[in-house]
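hey can u run this one w/ magnesium ion bound, need the structure tokens asap thx
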Amino acid sequence: MTDSVSSFEELNLSPEIIKALGKMGFSSPTPIQSKTIPIMLGGGDVIAKAPTGTGKTCAFGIPIIECLDPGITDIQAVIVCPTRELCIQIGDELRALVKYRPDIRIVTVYGGQPINRQLTALKRKPQIVVATPGRLIDHMNRGSIWLGNVYTAVLDEADEMLKMGFIRDVRKILNATPADTQVVMFSATFSREVMDVAWEYQHNAVEVTVAAEGENRPKIAQFSLLSSGERRFKDTLTIIKALDLHRVIVFCNMKSTVRRLTERLKRAGCSTDCLHGDIPQVQRNRVMDGFREGRFEVLVATDVAARGIDVDDVEAVFNYDLPDENEYYLHRIGRTGRAKRRGLAFSFITPDDRYRMRDIIKYTCSDIKEIGLNEDGQPVLKSGERLTELLRKD
Ligand code: ADP
Ligand code: MG
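ok here u go:
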């Protein structure tokens, strides 16, 4: 089998899917897609490791849609993912893929949304369900979801989901599917928990890895800047202005920082909104939609929004605080530089953070350059070279 499939046509996809992909603006499969799709179409299990932004949703979405029997009204594919945001996003991408397949119904079920709405949607007999683990189990217990005829089960962001303590739920879900169900796992890392679940539920799974380097690696120019306390607010504004940025995510570690920074940015005339765990679901969706549609420019968020969220064209990610875990550094900056676009990442560090930063550099194998701000408010490298010049060059 060859890895080097360069067109969707070579994957023998149906005209309806090819047409939908065209409509979505995708001209050729990403590496994870050209590796995963043939295996899944052949019915095989897959355990795939790939960094964010490599197109995993379509990698499992396309074969699932192609293998469905629309005549069967049972749920045939279940996709389990860790957060509601991701659930909604996967649902949206799959709906775009079935644009020309009116016979396929997709339902998303996640915590925080009124259960009645989901019950009504489930009565329409979807063949594909996208769900967070807790709510899925709820429905299974109520009898509104039955997985006894599932052909494919996908665990998306498996490492994250298992790390969040969903292992029992995931087992319960997989136990409710037939023993010969195709089990497909996608993960940024192959953690112990991921390997355990793979061992227990997969059969002869093909391991697919897309390395976080080379042409796949999102092009993200990364910088750190000594700045702490209140200075960070001014420096954020200065960089946004100097580089003329209009689509930015700022990550903070605490809700209180998110709230305060959002207020200050608004007062400074920046169109800003925020996401954190205390914001009700309905409003979170509204904020995400608003950001996706460009109704405001700066999204301030805690790590709630860090994982999986797909917004195109994010120009820059700011780490207002360094994340507590190295892995989160990657998740956060993975919001920019998606699908081969280039991106920028700025991390504010205190002198004490320098050791952490070195650790992050080692862990993530990234090149993070230290910058400063000159008296004209221009971000410059240690050499004095302006960032605007540097970025023009590559
Ligand atoms: P991951 O789950 O690996 O983080 P996503 O599935 O969210 O990645 O895809 C990342 C981005 O790339 C999305 O905006 C998606 O629409 C886009 N994308 C997916 N497949 C392709 C493709 N074949 N060509 C161009 N863009 C794609
Ligand atoms: Mg994904």
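The radius of gyration is 22 Å. anyway lmk if its weird
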